[in-house]
Amino acid sequence: MRRITTAVCSLSLLFSGYALAAEKVAFVPQIIGIPYFQAMEAGGKRAASDLGVEFVYSGPVDTNPMDQLQIVQNLIAQKVNAIGISVLDASSIAPVLAQAKANNVHLFTSDSDAPDSGRPVYVAQATDQGLGDAIIDEMVKRVGDHGKIGIVSGEATASNLNSWIGFMQQRVKSKYPNITLLKPQYAGGSASRAAQIATDLMSANPDIKGLIAMASTTCPGVAQAIETAGKNGKVIGSGFCSPNTARAYLKSGAFGYTVLWDPEKLGYLTVWAGKQLIDGKAFSAENRVPGFTEPVKFDSKTGVLLLGSPAVFTKENVDQFKF
Amino acid sequence: MHMTSREIALLAIALLAIAGFSWFSPWFATVDNLLTILRNSSELLLIALGMTLVIAMGGVDVSVGVVMGVAAWAVGQLLLVNSPWLAALAGPLLGLLLGLITALVVVMGRIPAIVGTLGLFGVWRTGLFALLGGQWLSGLPGSLTSGLMHPLLGLPVMAWIIVLVWACVWLVLRHTPYGLWLLAAGNSEEKARLAGIPVTQVRIATFMISGLLCGIAATCYIATYRNVEMTVGGSLALEAIAAVVLGGTRITGGACSLLGTLLGVLLLRILQNGLLLVGIPSLWQTVVTGAVLLVVLSSEAASGRVIAFRRTA
After folding, report:
1. CB of B135 within 8 Å of any CB in chain A?
2. Of A186, A191, A227, B17, which has the most beta carbons under 10 Å away?
3. Residues in chain B within 8 Å Cβ distance of A207
4. Alpha carbons B257 and B49: distance in angstroms, whole number
């Protein structure tokens, strides 16, 4: 009898061990090799070891939507169980989503959304509105509620950047009627092009008071342009930039502040959400996630799982963050 | 000096663009903005100069942007350990070395230049990723910047370096046997060999000169932008080819125009800068530059046909 029990136990252990090893959650960033997505990768790894799943991290070396979709298709072919993707091109994701469903793979969005694609959940870093409002409010605190502010974005197809820009424009329109938000300019993934555009914006608008870098790739370029023009403190640089990327510029005064969130925690939440989907557990309005002090909110209408409110980094607090 | 019809056409388009931009934007024709255009042109000026030689020889090199990136990484790393002189020299040296590798692959390996350099493009890009270890170099020390941007006779030192480099290449091309050999090899490799021209050596030297120029561009890049990102130099090769072809260098080799390349680079950068200054969204810039390229090349082809028709008539 004992022998049978032992056998059953070891068999079930083996089986559960097999099941654990077989469950794979993947995350596909917009581009590999930048500190931001590396922090998400680190958080994903931490969650994977906490939750007992295997974590796969794979993404394009350039912000190329086609390369990104190919990587997702490869992951589907490899039979991973869930894939979180930071979408580069929202319009081209729907067919891949159908392909994932057909192969019983849970494909969901994280960090950058494709709202009309039918994805099961979007793991959001902060609401797009929260971010748009925060960057504008912080800017107004520093330059006053009069004047011109320029926007240097990355890829014109990146849905997260476009959504933030939309909310920034709304915030200005509804709350700061005397602020002029210039039309966004797009630098692609190149820091040098961002610097050139920022310089040209300052030439075209000598009375410009602030410049906002939308993508982490555009941050060093915008900051460098302000430094080269000798306008540290005269033009307030800012953006959605990680503390590592912005540290030198926050300290030199080219940047007044940056707004972001903790991507390490976002990576953690992404893998947690993937595990929930694999287990077939529905998200509740408020979720307890290990390691999170606040409950994580889920909006069933929009399908958004929200990390929390955005963080503001300045030269005073930047050294507390290492991503 | 005798200018070709292409050079005159480019100059005319550039002047027309300058007049238009000045009309629509009060900020275009200012000293600051013109200096900005020159500063934004610096890497492309160097890389397109090397590309002119490579194309004149009947080759092409699509890896130049990433070669600059790898060299820029070395410059940045040395700058971090605080040796601006060593850092400034590391760019050209590494560029020369990478140019030699390109030459060995393409010339000794007997691989078509476009295929060989496309392969190297992939290798260097991934290599750069590995070197950066996923971390960008950003906010590099300003020691190199203050040196190269130091004003000398009204222009930054960097501008004089670029002028000197162009003068050297012009001298070598027009006043040494190398120039004749290069064009002969570009016209017909077989005939050049039969005429006793050391074609292999000429081709190796040309790729090395191009690499050296990419390396100098890397030092300029670090001085200007003080960061190295993963995607550094991604579009430079295509921009350089566009500038060279715009300038009238024959894409199949055998004829080249340094003045044309100079005008081509400046026209590309003037368009990028001016369109933004007059308020056209940056998305449209590539469309406009692409259209200019097509118009210039097809009008030349059309006038060529007219001449051919007259001759036969």
Report:
1. yes
2. A191
3. none
4. 10
Q: Do A220 and B229 touch (CB under 8 A)?
A: yes
Q: Say whether A192 and B279 touch across the interface (CB within 8 A).
A: no
Q: Tens digit of pLDDT for each residue in B47-66?
A: 999 999 999 999 999 999 99
Q: What is the pTM of this model?
A: 0.79
CB contact under 8 A, A192 and B225: yes
How far is A92 from chain B, CA to nearest CA, in Å? 20
Query: Residue A185: which residues within 8 A CB-CB, separation 6 or more?
Result: A150, A151, A152, A153, A197, A201, B276, B281, B282
So what's the ipTM on this one?
0.81
In angstroms, the separation between the Cα of residue A13 and the nearest Cα of chain B is 38
Separation of alpha carbons A119 and A132, rounded Å: 24
Q: Report CA A88 to chain centroid distance, whole Å.
A: 11
Domains contained in chain A, CATH given: 2-125+262-308 (3.40.50.2300), 128-260 (3.40.50.2300)
- pLDDT reading at B245 higher than 80: yes
A190/B221 touch (CB, cutoff 8 Å), yes or no: no
- Domain B5-312 sits in CATH 1.10.10: no
Q: Where are the domains of chain B?
A: 5-312
Q: For residue B64, which of B215, B177, B261, B180 has the smallest C-alpha distance? A: B215
Q: Cβ contact (<8 Å) for B282 and A185?
A: yes
Q: pLDDT of A216-270, one tens digit each? A: 889 999 999 999 999 999 999 999 998 888 999 999 999 999 999 889 999 999 9
pLDDT digit string (tens) for B118-163? 999 999 998 988 888 766 788 888 888 888 988 888 889 999 999 9
Pick from A136-150, B140-154, B266-280: least confident: B140-154
What is the rounded distance in angstroms from the CA atom of residue A240 to the CA atom of residue A112? 13
For residue A33, give the nearest of B139, B225, B230 by CB distance. B230
The partner residue sitting opposite A190, judged by closest CB among B33, B231, B276, is B231
Q: A110 phi and psi, to 5 degrees?
A: -150, 135
Residues of chain A with C-beta less than 8 angstroms from the C-beta of B229? 34, 189-191, 217, 220
Per-residue tokens: B256 = 């080249």
pLDDT of A43: 94
DSSP per residue, A250-288: HHHTSBS-EEE--HHHHHHHHHHHHHHHHHTPPPPSEE-
Q: How far apart are CA B122 and CA B107, in angstroms?
A: 19
Mean pLDDT computed over A38-44: 93
